[in-house]
């Protein structure tokens, strides 16, 4: 069966510091991968998605970036965090089918607080 | 463009009763999929149920069923025999055939009381 891991689970960082959040998927090959952010009490905002190694699509302009160095590894980074980067970051994966039935499965998330 | 609307910010239900969470959508795609996710206080998004736009029957998964009314563009989630563990945030989402990603609604908070 497939599992998805995210770490760290929680993170408190000062403004201006760098960020690296990691997501890995087990039990599947060549998944589509996604990064979402959820502000407190709000819905999900798609940040990045990837259909393969080195292929990253950005949905919103921000000071965040994403990389996919390996097939089942997805990393979210920032060189300098802003207060507005605080939130709950969720990674998700799906089996590429190209159809409307493609289901995304989410990881446990990382709670980030920027002070 | 795709849009999901969940008009109920919060819902209350007593244990063992049924509850319906509303979801309406807007899309110009002929082929699309509708999804419901549950987010408990722990934060993880849990996939509950899927309905395809061409599916003739409403989807069911255990105590969850999806009341799909295509002409009205609605995809309401029905939870039968509510349990205390059903207390959570519920999100409706859709994916059109021409899109690579999901569009989420703003969610409905469900509280189940004893």
Which pair of chains forms the biggest interface, and how many residues does each contribute?
A: A-B, 25 and 26 residues
**First and last CA, distance of chain A:** 38 Å
Helix content of chain B: under 10%
* Mean of all residue-level pLDDT scores of chain B: 94
Secondary-structure element order of chain A, as H and E?
Answer: EEEEEEEEEEE
Kindly name the structural category of chain B. mainly beta
Strand-residue proportion of chain B? over 45%
Overall 3D shape of chain B: globular
Mean pLDDT level of chain A: 92
- Tally of extended strands of chain B? 12
Helical amount of chain A: under 10%
Question: In DSSP terms, counting alpha (H) and pi (I) runs of 4 or more, how many helices of chain A?
Answer: 0
Low-confidence stretches of chain A: none
Report on this model:
The complex is a heterodimer of chains A (115) and B (114). Chain A has 115 residues and is an all-beta fold. Chain A is built from no helices and 11 strands. In chain A, the strands form 2 sheets. In chain A, strands 2, 4, 5, 6, 9, 10 and 11 form a 7-stranded mixed beta sheet that branches. The model of chain A has no long low-confidence stretch (mean pLDDT 92). In chain B, strands 2, 5, 6, 10, 11 and 12 form a 6-stranded mixed beta sheet that branches. Chain B is built from no helices and 12 strands. In chain B, a hairpin with a 4-residue loop joins strand 8 and strand 9. In chain B, 0% of the residues lie in helices and 53% in strands. Chain B is mainly beta and 114 residues long. Chain B starts with a strand and ends with a strand. The model of chain B has no long low-confidence stretch (mean pLDDT 94). Chain B is globular and about 45 Å long. At the A-B interface, strand 5, strand 9 and strand 10 of A face strand 5, strand 6 and strand 10 of B.
């Amino acid at each position: 069966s497939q599992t998805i891991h995210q770490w760290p689970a929680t993170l408190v960082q000062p403004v201006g510091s760098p960020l690296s959040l990691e997501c890995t998927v087990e039990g599947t090959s060549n998944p589509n991968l996604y990064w979402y952010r959820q502000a407190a009490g709000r819905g999900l905002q798609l940040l990045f998605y990837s259909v393969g190694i080195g292929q990253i699509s950005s949905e919103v302009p921000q000071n965040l970036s994403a990389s996919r160095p390996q097939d089942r590894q997805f990393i979210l980074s920032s060189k300098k965090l802003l207060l507005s980067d605080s939130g709950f970051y969720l990674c998700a994966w799906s089996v590429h089918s190209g159809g409307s039935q493609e289901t995304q499965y989410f990881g446990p998330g990382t709670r980030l607080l920027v002070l | 463009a795709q849009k999901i609307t969940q008009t109920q910010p919060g819902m209350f239900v007593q244990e063992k009763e049924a509850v319906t969470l509303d979801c309406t959508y807007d899309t110009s795609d002929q082929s699309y999929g509708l999804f419901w996710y549950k987010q408990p206080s722990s934060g993880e998004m849990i996939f509950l149920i899927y309905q395809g736009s061409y599916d003739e029957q409403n989807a069911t998964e255990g105590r969850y069923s999806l009341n799909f009314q295509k002409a009205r563009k609605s995809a309401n989630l029905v939870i039968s025999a509510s349990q205390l563990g059903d207390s959570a945030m519920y999100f409706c989402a859709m994916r059109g055939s021409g899109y690579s990603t999901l569009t989420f609604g703003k969610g409905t908070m469900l509280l189940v009381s004893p």
